[in-house]
Design a protein that fits this description.
Elements (H helix, E strand, L loop, with lengths): L3 H22 L18 H8 L7 H19 L6 H21 L9 H13 L8 H26 L3 H29 L4 H6 L16
Helix pairs in contact: 1-2, 3-4, 3-5, 3-6, 3-7, 5-7, 6-7
Length: about 220
């Protein structure tokens, strides 16, 4: 039997989903012509766009975030061997690559690996103002992100001051925290994947109705 806290959480989640759907429908395109297929869930991408609830960008984003601290720190350390201008250009190039790489790589069909689940969990966490998540998980993820960024900033500071101890300590703290954070994001996805139609849509595989079917054997 669900506890009063779980009942309250389920009511908040249902109310948030209802609010998203109602506000999204105000901005929908004109209704399709008579006879056009209006399958259930056909307007889901449009609802996502209009409601401001974005979808995950795929596993490439997770991989980019994992290598980002080390790459940025290493790029700044090159100031020991390279001119300042070249170091700045290298850092900017690394940042542009990290930001653009997830968008340049096409999203594969859902396979359910850990990187995809972590990416989906992060999107669910960012969507928490519209679709609530348990406060305990939200608090833990918020603290983990703060510790992670503190570690990354210490590593970058160590690179600027040419201190291998600061850089090594910062990266150690950052990556240890990131490993725990990724585990929590995967747990969040597993918890929330069936809580809203929005999240079930993310893993649905599109089917081509125009694909010719094989003739049945006699």
């Amino acid at each position: 039997m669900p506890s009063p806290g779980e009942d309250a959480y389920d009511r908040r989640t249902s109310a948030s989903i209802k609010w998203i759907m109602q506000n999204s429908q105000r901005h929908l395109l004109p209704k399709a012509a008579a006879g056009q297929n209006q399958a259930s869930g056909a307007n889901t991408p449009l609802l996502l766009l209009k409601s401001g609830v974005g979808g995950p960008v795929g596993p490439a984003s997770t991989y980019a975030k994992i290598v980002a601290p080390a790459l940025i720190t290493a790029a700044i350390w090159t100031k020991i061997w390279l001119d300042t201008a070249f170091t700045v250009m290298l850092v900017v190039g690394v940042l542009l690559l990290l930001f653009r790489l997830p968008k340049l790589l096409p999203n594969r069909r859902w396979t359910g690996n850990w990187a995809e689940k972590a990416s989906f969990g992060e999107r669910i966490w960012l969507n928490r103002p519209l679709i609530p998540i348990p406060q305990e998980i939200n608090h833990r993820l918020s603290v983990l992100h703060l510790v992670f960024w503190a570690g990354v900033l210490i590593a970058i500071l160590g690179a600027f001051t040419s201190s291998p101890i600061l850089s090594g300590t910062g990266l150690l703290v950052g990556y240890a925290t990131q490993a725990v954070c990724l585990r929590k994001l995967i747990d969040l996805y597993e918890l929330m994947k069936d809580k809203a139609p929005l999240y079930r849509f993310w893993t649905s595989a599109p089917e081509n109705d125009n694909k010719p079917k094989k003739n049945a054997k006699a």
